[in-house]
Design brief:
Helices cover 48% and strands 15% of the residues. By secondary structure, the protein is of the alpha/beta class. Strand 5, helix 5 and strand 6 form a beta-alpha-beta unit. The longest helix has 17 residues. The chain binds adenosine-5'-diphosphate and magnesium ion.
Length: 211
């Protein structure tokens, strides 16, 4: 079953936001999608509580239960798993990467975030999984920052995802309400960025058809 791990050793880089938006976009595209929340803070699960019974499904589990939890969701008909992970959670991140077909590493283009990227790169390089840095919260007209960060990521043996997320109020506003950007601002840039990311990711995962 196609499985995406969202990892980054840095808190606030946008892991949970990315996991929930990607999973919800896939669910709107008729994929039965499950978010597995490995973060003890359970932010994704809290978002699911605020949201109520809408898709996607969200479950929490400790890292040692990840494999069996994935198997259980698969038996229940899940077609796509997105794993959200805590920062500083080496075991969680390692288990998530091991389970994944695609690893996404959201990163803000700032010095300390790039420093944290080194630790994350080390972690994913062992697993030999396709891993892409997704630049998050990119300010307008930041072409130079994007180019520099891309070069830095490549120096660490990582690739840069072709899609970046801008600094967009819709990401923040929607998450607080148990929603996603496309639900609060369907025509907005955040919604378009998420859609572009899902179209690209489904290609990486070999998922047929177009949403
Ligand atoms: N592209 C973005 N634009 C605006 N706010 C964002 C963006 N990505 C994340 N945020 C906000 O940044 C904060 C941290 O994001 P979060 O997804 O919780 O990070 P992590 O899970 O890596 O700790 C949240 O308040 C979230 O709403
Ligand atoms: Mg989080």
């Amino acid at each position: 079953m196609p499985t995406v791990a969202i990892v980054s050793q840095k808190g606030g880089s946008g892991k949970t936001t990315l996991a929930l938006h990607l999973a919800t976009c896939a669910a709107y595209g008729d994929m039965q999608t499950c978010v597995i929340d490995l973060d003890p803070q359970a932010t994704a699960a809290a978002w699911g509580d605020w949201r109520g019974d809408f898709l996607p499904k969200i479950v929490t589990c400790p890292p040692v239960r990840l494999h069996s939890t994935i198997q259980k969701t698969q038996r229940e008909g899940t077609g796509l798993v997105v794993i959200d992970t805590p920062p500083h959670g080496d075991t969680a991140a390692r288990e998530a990467v091991r389970a994944a077909d695609l690893v996404l590493i959201p990163t803000r283009a700032r010095a300390f975030d790039l420093h944290a990227l080194e630790a994350t790169a080390e972690l994913v390089s062992y697993a030999g999984k396709p891993a892409f840095v997704l630049l998050n919260g990119v300010p307008p007209r930041a072409t130079r920052i994007v180019a520099e960060t891309g070069a830095f990521a490549e120096g660490l043996g990582l690739k840069l995802s072709p899609v970046t997320f801008g600094e967009r109020a819709a990401f923040h506003r929607s998450s607080r309400a148990g929603e996603v950007a496309s639900e609060v601002d369907p025509q907005g840039k955040a919604a378009a960025e998420v859609d572009a990311l899902w179209q690209w990711a489904r290609g990486q995962l070999g998922i047929e058809g177009s949403a």
